[in-house]
Structure prediction request, 164 residues.
Amino acid sequence: PGLLQTPDYARAVTRAALDGMPDEQVNALVEVRLARQDVLRAAPPLRLSVILDEAVLHRPVGGHEVLDGQLKRLLEAAQLPHVRLQVLPFAAGEHVGLIGSFVIFSFPNISDLDVVVLDHLTSSLYLERKEDLQAYSEAFKSLQAKALSPEESTDHIAGIRDGA
Prediction:
């Protein structure tokens, strides 16, 4: 997720998604993405629960040095008390996340503002119906159950960095 990306990784992802875009525009989009990360340092900070498919931990987006920096960033973020990071390992087999990634924004005091966001190449789809929110919440719980625990996940990421 953009909230956990390093500048180099965000730049590589943006360039890959928007091939041919001028560097100035890529850099502007990356700056916006990085500015959003301030919510993790706010008082109180945003609570963030993330499940990463193991494949992204091996894909050398931007090259091996950029990937290593990104893995280091994930390990640092996982140590924050308000961040819960889990890895969905290859061994989990099939799972509901194969349909595609999604983000659930949940607001504890005003649940009417909850929304599911599905990102596409040129736009995003926002789902607000209770039925959609319930389906995606259940999907997220299913993914959490199949994923490694946060502790196992950080060990797994560290092992990948160490070449294990």
Remarks:
- The CA atoms of residues 3 and 35 lie 9 Å apart.
- The chain has a mean pLDDT of 93.
- Helices lie at 7-17, 23-36, 55-58, 64-78, 130-146, 150-161.
- The first strand starts at residue 48 and ends at 53.
